[in-house]
Predict the structure.
Amino acid sequence: MVEAGHVGITDFNMSLGKATHDAALGDAGYFVAPATLRFKVQGQQIIQSGASLNVALRPSDDSWRIAAWLGRREPAAAQMM
């Protein structure tokens, strides 16, 4: 994301669908959700569907915090609008 502006990427947005997997046991939590990415490359709108966001969580005070995450996209799921 740091280099995004240098190559003309703007207006980045990620939306998550309903979790397809979630679990919590003791001091560890985990969830997987489908993700759709939207951004512009030199003004051209790009939508990437078919991605997922995997998140590992740890408790902190009265909430959960992200300990690690992984985003994954299936090949050829980008679409120019």
